[in-house]
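Database export, one record per block. Field names are fixed; values are copied verbatim from the stored entry.
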Amino acid sequence: MVWCLLQLSIRDRWVGFALLFTLVPVSLLVGFRLTGILQEPQTSKTITVETATWNMSRPIETGEVYVTFINETISDSYTDGKASVGLGTHIVWYHENDPSPPFDLGEGDGLDMRVVSTLNVTEGFIHSVVIRFSRTGDDAFLEMSESPEFFQLYNVSLGAIRNWGIHDWEKESYIEVYGVNQPKYCRLAVQIDWVFLDVKNNLDHRMTIDLEATYFDGATYRKVIAPILLEVLT
């Protein structure tokens, strides 16, 4: 169906996703945190936003090879006048029997998507942002690109240690970043590949993406959790 797409690499399919950024080194801060000298903030309140849900139906397995352009976005957000938190997931492609990486590590099926989080505070500063990916079952895996060209990090840092803060191929994968110079605005964007391992397209797949944004509002630390549930159903 879309044979020309199969000739494209992940990089080529994501033209326009390569983003440049400049980070202020925070090795001293990271070192303190890793050695326990710098303690995590004690949040006075945790706010969990209602879960936003997106789903699609899987095609019947026919052995055909194709890639379908989905181009749908699901988002969740929170605002209280002092902070605005947003999480968006752009579902870009569905792959069926695709032999290109990383789908060749499974049965060639799965989704690739772009996940973007933003946080803005009017008082205080941003402490950290964590995006967690929690899957149900062991019949899929998640891969996050470790190449800097597929990331956008604005006013946040992964840390001084290579790939510290990036954890994929786990049942609960996550990205963890910290504010640089106590910012009032930050943005994190990353490319995600969700690869399915079932052969006959006969299993449902679910994944919850949780944004955990921690900030200081001028008086206390607060955490906002914004969840998105993705479902690919038979």
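Remark 1: Residues 3-7+44-58+66-233 form a domain with the Immunoglobulin-like fold (CATH 2.60.40).
Remark 2: The chain is about 5% helix and 50% strand.
End of record.
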